[in-house]
Amino acid sequence: MPEVRLAAGALLALACSLPSFAAGERELFAAHCASCHNDKAPVSDFRIGALGEHPEPATLPLWTKSLTFVQTKYMPPPQTSNLSAEDRRRLVSYLSEGVRGYERRGAGSSKLAPRRLNNREIANGLRDVLEIEDVGTHHPLANLLGDTLEEGFDTDAEALAVSQFHLEQYIEAFRKVIDATILTGPRPKTRRYQVAAADMFMNSLSQRGGEGRNNRTPESIEFLDPRQSVYFTNFAAAPDTGRYRIKIRATGVDRGIYDAAATGIYHDDPIRLRVHLGDRVKMFDLLDNEVTEIELDEWIAAGTRLELSYPTDGLRFRGNSNFKFQFAIGHDYIKRTDPELYAAVLREKLPQAPARTAKSPGHWSHWTDNWQGARPRLLSAEIEGPLYESWPPKRQIALLGAEPVAEHAAAILRPIAERAWRRSVQEDELEPIARLVQTRAQKGGGTEHVEALKEGVVAILASPSFLLVNPGVGHPSDRFATKLALFVGSTIPDQDFRATVADDRLESFDAVRAEIQRRLGQQEADAFLSQFPYSWLELDQISFMAPDPDRFPLYSRKNLSEDMINEALRFFRHIVENNLPVPELLAADYSFINADLAQVYGVDDVPQDSKLRKYTFADGRRGGLLGMGAFLTSTADSLSTSPIHRAVFVMEKLLGIRPAPPPGDVEITEPDVRQAKTIKEILAAHASEPTCASCHRTIDPYGYAFENFDPVGVWREAYTSQIERRPPRARLLKILAEDKRRAAEGLPPVPRPWENEPIPVDSAAQFPDGSEYQDIVDYRRLLANDENRDRFVRCFITKLLTYANGAEPENDAELDKILARSAENDYRIVDTIAAVVHSPPFREE
User: Fold this and answer.
1) Are 564 and 677 in contact (CB under 8 A)?
2) Longest dimension (CA), the chain
3) CATH no. for residue 229?
4) What is the pTM of this model?
């Protein structure tokens, strides 16, 4: 809503064409909004007249968006408008009263749409319905379609519909899980497998096949290339489903021999071994030069392959990051420390080497037998199984009984159905499934009865009562129990929790807060602590346009994206577990970093290992979400930064402001940016175009402060890359064409200021409300003021409800109440989460 510059007659004409607002507000809208948002050529396709006299279901989003824009001074922009503070307050009051009136009339109490459980919830729900450790080691859910994300969330109702194809895939997956849980036929024979080093096979990454490069002796085999895995030739896969006892003898060798700067492996990091049992992965630290006995007792599905790997993000620093180039580190070390061995290797290797490498003593291929990098050494293994305490197994007896028969199908299946359907189950509800079971069991025999009951379990799981979260269906206490269990644990509620809710023990705010604190203390909220921030901050997008590996080698060669994601998750967990104020997510002067992140963040007083530890930054530039690599990298391009991307992230994810999209049908004339030296000057040129001005003037200031951070998040005082300074490709092509014309006339080429000396970063700007900042320190201070604090907490509340409900909340009055409850409790995050859970938008759907 940029300022209107109209003659008196035109102003009167516009005012008369507006809806019948109160007279004063009608004049304000006409004077400050209507020239851009009129009927003839409305900017961003928004017309003031479309608001109508009061909100209706179709126009409510326009009213709420207009309210947000006027409240945040996003519109009309203060730089181009003379709207006084009092007049802005009048507009806010008018729009707010319209929205609140709509909500008071009950028009805003729209019910949420049903949604299906997402794949995370399906996996956890199956685990808890069948009372097993997980869905199995045989990738039983691999056939399911991936969930569609909406602004990072996998709980969006519109994206979680159910099709016939979905149902077919669910049934196939459910059968795989149940087949590995409920066993029939003769009891499999228990076997013992002794695995010597000779029985261990290391896969090859070479297209020519064969076993991968390794150090092997009759007693051991060692990992060299960390991308490879070890399998057991005499235990290729579990022959039967059951419990297996696995013992692995291994040790870590040569930790700390080579320089950590050369290998990328810190001397203080333990050497680890990773054990893969299908979908299930276990990690173990190995003792140095001392045998470690790893023992596992696991329920494994038939066909599961046991695999061992060496987890490290090092050993990729040389060449193109292919491990083979790391062997040259051995050359460097031996040449420096053992001249006799160095000469002996060359005497042995060079005469046999191909001509292309014979003249290169340092070539990696000569030194493969002399590798002394940190690595696991595997000695032997022993596997015993399958083992059962009884037949049928105890877990199966607990589920179906010792001797289940189809005639009792309803009684056998009722506890399973009540867990799956999250409510009490009536006798007649199970009759169709019981008849199905009995029909399938007519062939007779105990095995047939169990197989028939398995199909009954599949039918229970394939029903809408399991697959759908259906607001408005069933008892309110069961719906609330289901919703809270999914919100906190991404799973279904157990019987005890349903009883707690049914007995009205979670009716007060204090009781809800105590329940959330209990779950946090008993590690029952880990799903929320990891999934909510991952979704809210869209951490899955961190490498969508990953930093260029040539210009930013540390990012790709040390898997920095994983460290950055884990930093964000660890920081969020710290805030919640200590019940700190929500604004500390932005205002904190600390984060959790390791030695790799320390290199990015420019600090050197951290332990030299990979463990994340709390670190307080002294310069005011970092700390909290805004200083994290996860944010700075995901909002940059591969070779350069983007103030707009970073601005939009802050506005949408942190402040709840949705900037207007660029006009879709307006041809934007590209401005002349030949003399522009920085991205700020390029954007300023765009802002000079009338069709771009209103958006750029209000969006760009939210992103300029981050220009001191490069695409990985490293601090910079100047632009040093030509790519970061050069104009867009279209302009470059025009410049090249101009050069050709000038050359024909004997003239010098077009000046290229981006090829000059490094250009200082200008990170100063002015927010739409007129407040100014000079750098990121000022910017962070402004975001911490009372107005932005409440805006951030309100946005956080909105994201919590979006995650919980599968839709963005529309009732502004209820959001205000939750914000007020949060403020009463000093904005503490657990109290704020409890206020969300206790609110009508969560309880009443």
Assistant:
1) no
2) 99
3) 2.60.120.260
4) 0.86
